[in-house]
UniProtKB/TrEMBL annotation:
<keyword id="KW-0235">DNA replication</keyword>
<dbReference type="GO" id="GO:0003887">
    <property type="term" value="F:DNA-directed DNA polymerase activity"/>
</dbReference>
<keyword id="KW-0808">Transferase</keyword>
<dbReference type="InterPro" id="IPR005790">
    <property type="entry name" value="DNA_polIII_delta"/>
</dbReference>
<keyword id="KW-0239">DNA-directed DNA polymerase</keyword>
<dbReference type="GO" id="GO:0003677">
    <property type="term" value="F:DNA binding"/>
</dbReference>
<protein>
    <recommendedName>
        <fullName>DNA polymerase III subunit delta</fullName>
    </recommendedName>
</protein>
<dbReference type="GO" id="GO:0009360">
    <property type="term" value="C:DNA polymerase III complex"/>
</dbReference>
<dbReference type="GO" id="GO:0006261">
    <property type="term" value="P:DNA-templated DNA replication"/>
</dbReference>
<dbReference type="InterPro" id="IPR027417">
    <property type="entry name" value="P-loop_NTPase"/>
</dbReference>
<keyword id="KW-0548">Nucleotidyltransferase</keyword>
């Protein structure tokens, strides 16, 4: 139907509102812009209640198509978003299926291995017969693929067949050709596309493709395009917050953030909170709030989990692991974070925390709450000292406080803001989830998958034990 740039999306939506919306939108490129595009599309296509987001890392396209074919409870239509879909990477999916099948087969779990094995053969266009010996002639199979032969023989004995070799791209094209119910729309986001592939060309002819990519080269026009996008983002966020920023502060902010729109928005929101009633953001504000985050990406990760921002947390975790951090180290950082949140919650629900109000401004926190928190923790320390005259218990327990000496108040303020996102029992559930994850990882389960599951369960919140 049409290929457009992200900057053209608002205008195209206004046109389609008059002429009729595309049934399918394919969105690719920079992740923050993709997320913004999804938000704009969801708002334009229906009510918030009619939008259902599915994570592509955990849900297959078939499931999304089944979901969009069901009746909407809200009458006005239905919008399904498949975020992070894998329709362009069937090769990597085949490899993952082969690894799962081989691992299960080596453990003697043939029944578990067979579904992965058959799907792998389907994606690779292979048959069972091509892997087994026939007519007394022994098939020559490489040593690394030797595990496939007994599985293929078992499948043939059971009368099993390789499923239709249609990959997810072909499945999507057939669904578009068939059409969706009136008012039903499918939004698909992918990291990148290959414009040379037939799949992309066919999708571009039948869907609305939104290009959110950003130039990554070092040419002058590439750098200018990135700078312009950062400036637009900065002006937009500050405008909504009713803030201004000193030019030197803006330069330092962009230097610390780099080209990362998601991080830029998060940093601007932190600075706006920090400024409180002050209209202007200064260079001193930037130095005090943001320098530590730039140096320690682990804080970005733990902060995203505490903010119940699962997508940002999973993205940050992937970066940490790619840089060499073991998932157990990341888990340990999360445990420390949630211990602090439990301590913060205990303060908030105590008589000493009565001065705190929901989404309290930073200035009010430093004037009214911080002194009360310091007195509260000093009283607790004194109480522990009385329990153990030697001071041993008290010395160990000081790590359980969140205020320290109170000379770096902004992180304390952030901890209280994050604590109020939870109920006390939800924090207890989160600690139980993290303890369970620790046990599973140490028992030999896939550490990354276990930690990702824990992050999603914490993000879902109430009712997830």
């Amino acid at each position: 139907m049409v290929e457009i740039r992200y900057t053209e999306l608002s205008e195209v939506l206004r046109q389609q509102e008059k002429e009729g919306f595309s049934p399918v939108f394919l969105i690719h490129g920079e992740s923050f812009l993709c997320d913004n595009a999804v938000e704009k599309l969801a708002a334009a296509l229906g009510s918030r209640e009619a939008f259902e987001a599915l994570e592509g890392a955990q849900v297959r396209l078939r499931d999304a198509l089944e979901e969009i074919s069901t009746f909407s409870l809200f009458g006005s239509g239905k919008v399904v978003g498949l975020l992070g879909a894998r329709i362009f990477d069937s090769g990597s999916e085949a490899q993952a299926l082969a690894e799962k099948a081989e691992k299960a087969a080596q453990k003697g779990k043939t029944k578990q291995a067979i579904p992965f094995f058959l799907r792998y053969l389907a994606l690779k266009g292979m048959t069972l017969e091509s892997l087994v010996s026939t007519g007394g002639k022994k098939k020559k199979i490489s040593e690394k693929d030797a595990w496939m032969q007994p599985l293929a023989e078992t499948c043939l004995q059971k009368g099993l067949k390789v499923p239709d070799s249609m990959d997810e791209g072909e499945l999507l094209l057939k669904a578009i050709e068939k059409g969706f119910s009136a008012g039903h729309h499918l939004l698909i986001t992918v990291d990148q596309v290959d414009r040379r592939r037939v799949l992309y060309k066919k999708l571009a002819a039948s869907a609305c493709v939104v290009d959110c990519s950003v130039p990554s080269g070092n040419r002058r026009q590439d750098r200018e395009a990135r700078d312009e996008m950062m400036r637009e983002c900065l002006v937009g966020v500050l405008g909504r917050a009713g803030k201004t920023i000193d030019p030197r502060a803006a330069s330092r902010l962009l230097e610390l953030t780099g080209f990362d729109l998601r991080m830029l928005v998060a940093n601007l929101e932190k600075l706006a909170d920090f400024a409180g009633d002050r209209k202007g953001i200064t260079l001193k504000d930037v130095e005090e709030v943001l320098v530590r985050t730039r140096q320690d990406p682990i804080f970005v990760f733990t902060g995203a989990v505490a903010d119940r921002n699962a997508s940002e947390a999973l993205f940050s975790l992937a970066g940490l692991i790619k840089d060499g951090m073991h998932p157990l180290q990341a888990l340990s950082a999360l445990v420390n974070q949630f211990r602090k949140l439990v301590t913060a919650m205990d303060f908030l629900i105590s008589p000493a925390g009565k001065g705190w109000t929901r989404r309290m401004a930073y200035d009010g926190f430093t004037r009214f709450v911080l002194p009360a928190l310091l007195d509260h923790e000093a009283a607790l320390k004194a109480m522990r000292q009385e329990w153990d005259d030697s001071g041993e218990v008290a010395a160990k327990a000081t790590d359980l406080g969140i205020a320290g000496n109170g000379k770096n108040p902004y992180p304390i303020y952030q901890t209280l803001l994050r604590a109020e996102r939870f109920e006390r029992r939800e924090l207890e559930q989160a600690m139980a989830i993290l303890a369970e994850a620790d046990l599973r990882i140490k028992s030999g389960m896939d550490a990354t998958k276990v930690l990702e599951s824990a992050i999603l369960r914490i993000g879902l919140g109430s009712g997830v034990a």
